[in-house]
Amino acid sequence: MHIVIVEDDPVIRKELKTLLENAMYQVTVLEEFDRVPEQVERCQPDLVLLDVTLPGTTGFDICMKIREKLSLPIVFLTSRMDAMDELTGIMKGGDDYIRKPYQTPILLARIGAVLKRYKGSAMQEVTRLEHKGVSLDISKCVLEYRGEELELTKNEMKILHNLFQNAGNFVSRMDLTEYLWESQIFIDDNTLSVYVTRIREKLRSIGIEDFIETKRGIGYRI
């Protein structure tokens, strides 16, 4: 997932970039603020992390201009504490409003929650995804390959849907677990491995070999 950071403080900018890259996000940092909506449109990110107070403009104005052309999550990250500012941010089109100084786990959790809501909406709109000749039919909950259909359970479907949405990129075990069960609390880490093993066995049964790649310490990709 690709995140654009719009933040004028170079120290915070660097900190956020490192934090998000360590969480396996692709990150683009903007350092000029006179044409932010145009730069965001060129990047086509999955989420914008946006400061409110910026040189020569405000995050509120930028948010409105982005909303005129793009439908993507926008999260305000700001030191402004006034409740009216938070209300203004939401009314201008923001999906969340996080105050500095932020706590790292909470920041990552809230970014993940916003992305999940948008991905859930996309799943309702798109009914078929394809990769390497393999099709995932969301409406029928089946996987198709060379004329053969493979029925999937609900959780098998959700795992494959997440991998198809991020085709070519690794998805961490943490992200897959959160996507499946909303929280990692009380979930045995081996459970995900069991599901992936079952999916691989099903894939092999219709002639699909080495479709899901595992990278130790990173996660899975197709």
From TrEMBL:
Give the DNA-binding residues: 124-222
Q: Which stretches make up the Response regulatory domain? A: 2-115
Q: Which UniProt keywords apply?
A: DNA-binding, Phosphoprotein, Transcription, Transcription regulation
The superkingdom listed in its UniProt entry is: Bacteria
Q: Does the keyword Phosphoprotein apply?
A: yes
InterPro entries under this entry?
A: CheY-like_superfamily (IPR011006), OmpR/PhoB-type_DNA-bd (IPR001867), Sig_transdc_resp-reg_C-effctor (IPR016032), Sig_transdc_resp-reg_receiver (IPR001789), WalR-like (IPR039420), WH-like_DNA-bd_sf (IPR036388)
Q: Where is the OmpR/PhoB-type domain?
A: 124-222
| BP term (GO), one | regulation of DNA-templated transcription
Positions bearing 4-aspartylphosphate: 51
A Pfam cross-reference name: Response_reg
A GO cellular component annotation here is: protein-DNA complex
Please tell me whether the keyword Secreted is annotated for this protein: no
MF-aspect GO terms: phosphorelay response regulator activity; transcription cis-regulatory region binding
Q: Briefly state the protein's biological role.
A: May play the central regulatory role in sporulation. It may be an element of the effector pathway responsible for the activation of sporulation genes in response to nutritional stress. Spo0A may act in concert with spo0H (a sigma factor) to control the expression of some genes that are critical to the sporulation process.
The record, for PANTHER family, names: REGULATOR OF RPOS (PTHR48111), STAGE 0 SPORULATION PROTEIN A HOMOLOG (PTHR48111:SF43)
UniProt name for this protein: Stage 0 sporulation protein A homolog
Source organism? Suipraeoptans intestinalis
